[in-house]
């Protein structure tokens, strides 16, 4: 998918100026509320039109002020998943799912109902009304409805922000997995860095109506570590839980980690803040933290009054943060060996 | 037990016929106008708004008189219809038109309230899923404003049953032809010894109105429960 947006839009005191080209299948649009993300979404979907400029999708103009082109929303094949599910209340789950599919040209029907039922696991609710579904089910149906319209591009406008934390991280694999399995490129809009890290391969950052950066989610997370109250969030996929003396031990990147979290099923996603790691130059003999990882420094970067340290631990990678002075004392440099201590309670399960 | 003369029964039948016809004829226009007023913005919308609501405040007699001017043989529309061999004034068609005009604001208002309470995002969702505007209208907007359509139609029907002022001017008060229930009651009430007959028709009128309002409530609650 290749998308070119070059356009302005003014209403009241707000001015949006977008000028970017992105290619890829998992694009993130990151910004605080009021940064113009939703206006951008509406312009891409054809629900609002820019005052000037042009929007091209895969070389085809969706809007062009110069050429007087404004393709109406129903012909853009750009589907939307909103913050709230917005399911049609008078239709069943099946009726909702098939709404776009029925209106999609037969030649473009690559994704069918059976594919969606499989990836979203909604077979058991097909004939139910939509009002009594749970929040997660509703959002999955909304996603299925959008995917079944066989769009060239799927816009997801903060699709997780109305869900609670647990549900949020349960839905993410569906969002990403379904789009990947069905080969539908998406634009994921959010103000959450963690969501960006999980959903996007490339991120365009918006602030006050204009785009200010174009980066990978990891670069973005690093650049924001300095001012972020939660630090850099490491995302770890832990496997093979075993009970171990009141703690749970998990496998991660060739290491065993000890967590206070109770064991769960299969691969689990945990977050670990860069703030919750302590670095030692030499092996400390006795320490209360249950995890002591021998790591190699692979990168260091400045982040305000702190220094970020990228560590290679087994086959995994973690980012820790230390005060600039500490970095000097420990003589942290690429290639040096350190020990990272992490408390068993520092890992927080997502989903 | 009140007894009805054949003329009374004819008046009851005619009232029902006029009310049904006025409601059915107005419905498509009511939906169209409600859609335009809910979703489109255009210059002079306020003026249209005022004109739409005018029949609510204008005395029905005035409406009847204006219709008479419009539809009479020398009227702008009446002249054209006359040339085509169609006579409207002093027929039951005129009663239908009078009822339709007087009840129209009620119909539009109910449908509009229902349409405006539909979440804008639902309509946007249907558009991005490939529905053109008329497709959105028939598959999202109309089903979701069904309650308003039902409510508006029953109000319109009820209002038509009671139409008097405009009808008497533009359709006249011809027993068996244009004499609806209210007109018959008026006749009885203004002639000596007609009190009992007037009261009997009043009871029928009140019964019909109550039935319409109960039906309105019943359908309204059913539609709510389903959605």
TrEMBL record, chain A:
Amino-acid biosynthesis listed as a keyword: no
GO cellular component: membrane
Gene3D superfamilies: 2.40.50.100, P-loop containing nucleotide triphosphate hydrolases
Gene that encodes the chain: modC
Annotated ranges, domain ABC transporter: 2-233
InterPro entries listed in its UniProt record: AAA+_ATPase (IPR003593), ABC_transporter-like_ATP-bd (IPR003439), ABC_transporter-like_CS (IPR017871), Mo/tungstate-bd_C_term_dom (IPR008995), ModC_ABC_ATP-bd (IPR011868), Molybdenum_import_ModC (IPR050334), Mop_domain (IPR004606), P-loop_NTPase (IPR027417)
Keywords, in A-Z order: ATP-binding, Cell inner membrane, Cell membrane, Membrane, Molybdenum, Nucleotide-binding, Translocase, Transport
Origin superkingdom: Bacteria
Name of this protein: Molybdate-transporting ATPase
GO molecular function, one term: ATP binding
Sequence ranges assigned to domain Mop in this UniProt record: 286-351
From TrEMBL, chain B:
Listed GO CC annotations: plasma membrane
Membrane topology, as annotated: Multi-pass membrane protein
Protein name: Molybdenum transport system permease
A GO molecular function held by the record: molybdate ion transmembrane transporter activity
Keyword Magnesium: no
Gene: modB
Membrane-spanning ranges: 18-38, 50-70, 90-108, 197-219
Organism name: Geobacter hydrogenophilus
PANTHER family: MOLYBDENUM TRANSPORT SYSTEM PERMEASE PROTEIN MODB (PTHR30183)
Function: Part of the binding-protein-dependent transport system for molybdenum; probably responsible for the translocation of the substrate across the membrane.
Superkingdom: Bacteria
Cited InterPro entries: MetI-like, MetI-like_sf, ModB_ABC
Family statement: Belongs to the binding-protein-dependent transport system permease family. CysTW subfamily.
Keywords assigned: Cell inner membrane, Cell membrane, Membrane, Molybdenum, Transmembrane, Transmembrane helix, Transport
Major localization listed first in the record, in broad terms: membrane
Lineage of the species this protein comes from: Bacteria, Pseudomonadati, Thermodesulfobacteriota, Desulfuromonadia, Geobacterales
Subcellular locations according to the entry: Cell inner membrane; Cell membrane
Ranges for domain ABC transmembrane type-1: 12-214
